[in-house]
Amino acid sequence: MRTFGLARTPRLLFGAGEIVRLGECLVGLGAHDVLVVISPSAVADPETRDGIMRVIREAGVGASYVRYDALPGTLDPFEPGEGCCAEASPDVVDAIVADATSARSGGRPEAIVAIGGGSAIDTGKALSAAFLEDGSITDYLEGVGTRTPSGRKLPFVAVPTTAGTGSEATKNAVLSRPGFKKSLRHDRYVADIALIDPRLQLSCPRSQTAASGLDAITQLLEAYVSLTANPVTDALALDGLRAAGRSFLPAVDRGESDVEARADMAYAACLSGICLANAGLGTVHGLAGAAGARSSVPHGVFCGTLLPHVVERTVAALSGHPEAHGTLRKLAAAGWALCGRESGFSGGSLEDQHRMLVGRLAELARVAALPRLAGYGIDEALARQIAEAGDNKQNPHQFDVDERYELLLRAL
Ligand SMILES: [Fe+2]
């Protein structure tokens, strides 16, 4: 077995109804005054929102909250157009820090709670750092800023209401502005606690459920066959793919009532975060950042649309190379997992099993009714730019620019 490590993970509280433990979590972190970033679209029911704030206050913790509805990312991801970009913004982080500091006469909260989708969690994660750094958070972004994050942060609790990015388990916050999409990253930025209550995800709309779920599936699959995968991420990724294979379609079709399907997808998404933080990702995510910075395509829609093509071409490129046999077997196992079959399944030749995987990925995208990339203004010229600006991350086959361009054309 090769040498490997595993980065820190949050303390995990998982289960239907676990949100009632939020107050005791904050007390355990020593926080008496918390700032809650809450997405009204994610927690649409005011009674639920008030109930969450009550749980915090009944534990003796003072709490104020910032509504998140002024931000992009709360719109329907299947409605192309202005404001569809689903990432958090450094300007919003700076504004919240300024407001919260002035409301406390120059002081700062003692902990941050973020309740919402990936962009709300990323905003909360960035806030937990921003309160303890000087200047704008933009100064600390990879590839944009000139300062190095110190790693100091306020205690941070992530409460995801969508099952997708896995941000509750990662050490980076993706922040974007027109023209860039960059990470704020430090090993210490992992949430102290990830509180995952699948009941909070029942109200997530169908289109958001589909896009987020396909992001999680992409992350699990890319991490599973990554060049830097390890035995722990392999085990987690495969189990995440089994859960997603079982429950993606039920969560999309009857997500408002199927708590078990929501739990499976929340579990898959959380594992996808742990896997990507430790094993890395592949070509789909290598292109997603470039696409997100240049168009309004939502991350999950981009991933779900491109994934079948990247997997199919990866299989074709690796086939016939003896050194790639292990990866090809893993791609077959991923197909079994996503199709709900056991690994002992006698599914014919390896080629048949790869066709099963690609067919299943295409089926999930089709049933989810994902829009094509052209619907978000991505044309051939923009596809060329994305292919050139993107990369392959740890994909088991490294495509050149022309090949990446061809992949994008197939998804337009
Ligand atoms: Fe992703």
Write a brief caption for the model.
The chain has 412 residues and is of the alpha/beta class. It has helices at residues 22-28, 46-58, 90-103, 118-130, 206-224, 231-254, 259-279, 283-294, 299-318, 325-339, 350-367, 380-389, 401-411, and strands spanning 11-14, 33-38, 62-67, 111-116, 156-160, 172-177, 180-185, 193-196.
Overview of this structure, please?
With 412 residues, this protein is an alpha/beta fold. The protein has two domains: 11-201, Rossmann fold (3-Layer(aba) Sandwich); 206-411, Dehydroquinate synthase-like - alpha domain (Dehydroquinate synthase-like, alpha domain, Up-down Bundle), CATH 1.20.1090.10. The chain is built from 13 helices and eight strands. The radius of gyration is 20 Å and the shape is globular. Mean pLDDT is 90; it is low at 69-85. The structure holds fe (ii) ion (FE2). Fe (ii) ion (FE2) binds next to helix 5 and helix 9. Fe (ii) ion is lined by residues 165, 215, 219, 285, 299, 303.
Layout of strands and helices, then pairs:
Blueprint: E1 11-14, H1 22-28, E2 33-38, H2 46-58, E3 62-67, H3 90-103, E4 111-116, H4 118-130, E5 156-160, E6 172-177, E7 180-185, E8 193-196, H5 206-224, H6 231-254, H7 259-279, H8 283-294, H9 299-318, H10 325-339, H11 350-367, H12 380-389, H13 401-411
Parallel strand pairs: 1-8, 2-3, 2-4, 4-5, 5-8
Antiparallel strand pairs: 6-7
Helix pairs in contact: 1-2, 3-4, 5-6, 5-7, 5-9, 6-7, 6-10, 8-9, 8-12, 9-11, 9-13, 10-11, 12-13
This protein binds fe (ii) ion.
Fe (ii) ion binds at residues 165, 215, 219, 285, 299, 303.
